[in-house]
């Protein structure tokens, strides 16, 4: 007992020195903290209570024996971790070495005693020191201590280095003792994989919309001013005209138009390339804002047809139109495999509008 007292007094000098001149203004300690190693740490109830609502509750709850003095037990973690914890309550600081040695314990203490500043600090430092070796242990702790930032970081690391994590002692322990967490990790990995797939698909779709949007620009340009090999039927071909700024798309479109005009397989809506052309014309009409003065073939006819068929409007088509309208950049010509509408009867009228 005697020895403990001496230890505690020595410690208290050190403790208060850390708290930037506080020792001079602090009254006598009025509470003792007892650790697993039976170390008694003298402390000030006002400081403990101001930093931790849990300690505040313990300090101010009614005592059975008024004479017994205030004693708080913090057991189950190394003495030095408790010292580092109390030091943090006094100074709001933690040394690198303390974090290095007791980060896990400090996280648990900050959770149990509800000290959010320390919790954030621990989560950050532990997150920076994650490895495939310790990730399972830290993950378990992060879940227990409700530290979502750290939890997510652990999950991501476990998912991305699963082959290595699977070989660790921590993982084997987890499999034997915490099958729910094992399941949680596997589920997270699965979701991460499908998230990745979704993102890839969205990116691909976006590229398609951009390409379609460029094709729409080129179609209007071919039908109003004409390009290298195709132009409006009533305009003289100008051989001097050089390639336009979006020539890779424009050229593809011109080749498609030439095919469209000459394809022999007009029965049943024509071949796949013809159907693609139909779809581009229809798309133009869906987007066009000036059908009355528009030079693109079939623009008005498609608009009229769409008005007649308003009730059986195709939701997917509308979505496509919206997406193309919102697409900004533009690259090459290609079309998604969407349901294609046959517009057999207007085929020949379309061809007459071009000068090839
Ligand atoms: Zn062009
Ligand atoms: Zn064809
Ligand atoms: Zn138009």
Automatic annotation (TrEMBL):
Pathway membership: Protein modification; protein ubiquitination
GO biological process: regulation of DNA-templated transcription; response to hormone; response to hydrogen peroxide; response to salicylic acid
Pfam families: BTB, zf-TAZ
SUPFAM superfamilies xrefs: POZ domain (SSF54695), TAZ domain (SSF57933)
SMART domains noted in UniProt: BTB, ZnF_TAZ
PROSITE patterns named among the record's database cross-references: BTB
One annotated GO molecular function: zinc ion binding
Residue ranges occupied by any BTB domain in the UniProt entry: 29-98
Keywords: Metal-binding, Ubl conjugation pathway, Zinc, Zinc-finger
Bilayer-crossing regions: none
This protein's GO CC annotations: nucleus
Domain of life per record: Eukaryota
UniProt keyword Cell division, yes or no: no
Entry keyword Transmembrane: no
Name under which the protein is recorded: BTB/POZ and TAZ domain-containing protein 1
Organism for this UniProt entry: Morella rubra (Chinese bayberry)
């Amino acid at each position: 007992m005697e020895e403990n007292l001496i230890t505690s007094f020595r410690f208290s000098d050190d403790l208060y020195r850390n708290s930037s001149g506080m020792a001079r203004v602090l009254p006598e300690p009025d509470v003792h903290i007892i650790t697993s190693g039976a170390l008694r740490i003298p402390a000030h109830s006002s400081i403990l209570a101001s930093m931790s609502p849990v300690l505040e509750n313990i300090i101010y709850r009614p005592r059975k024996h008024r004479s017994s003095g205030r004693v708080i037990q913090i057991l189950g973690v190394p003495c030095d971790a408790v010292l580092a914890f109390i030091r943090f309550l006094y100074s709001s600081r933690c040394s690198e070495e303390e974090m290095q040695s007791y980060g896990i314990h400090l996280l648990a203490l900050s959770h149990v005693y509800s000290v959010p500043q320390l919790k954030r600090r621990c989560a950050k430092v532990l997150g920076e020191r994650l490895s495939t070796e310790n990730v399972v242990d830290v993950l378990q702790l992060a879940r227990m201590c409700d530290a979502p930032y750290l939890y997510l970081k652990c999950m991501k690391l476990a998912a991305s280095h699963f082959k290595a994590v699977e070989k660790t002692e921590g993982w084997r322990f987890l499999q034997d003792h915490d099958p729910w967490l094992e399941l949680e990790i596997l589920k997270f990995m699965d979701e991460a994989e499908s998230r990745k797939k979704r993102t890839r698909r969205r990116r691909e779709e976006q590229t398609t919309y951009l390409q379609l949007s460029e094709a729409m620009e080129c179609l209007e340009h071919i039908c109003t001013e004409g390009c290298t090999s195709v132009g409006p039927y009533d305009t003289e071909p100008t051989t001097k005209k050089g390639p336009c700024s979006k020539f890779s798309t424009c050229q593809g479109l011109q080749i498609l138009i030439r095919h469209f005009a000459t394809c022999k397989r007009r029965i049943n809506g024509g071949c796949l390339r013809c159907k693609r052309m139909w779809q581009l014309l229809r798309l133009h009409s869906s987007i066009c804002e000036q059908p009355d003065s528009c030079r693109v073939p079939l623009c008005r006819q498609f608009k009229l047809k769409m008005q007649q068929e308003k009730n059986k409007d195709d939701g997917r088509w509308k979505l496509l139109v919206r997406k193309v309208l919102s697409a900004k950049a533009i690259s090459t010509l290609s079309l998604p495999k969407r349901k294609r509408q046959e517009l057999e009867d207007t085929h020949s009228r379309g061809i007459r509008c071009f000068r090839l």
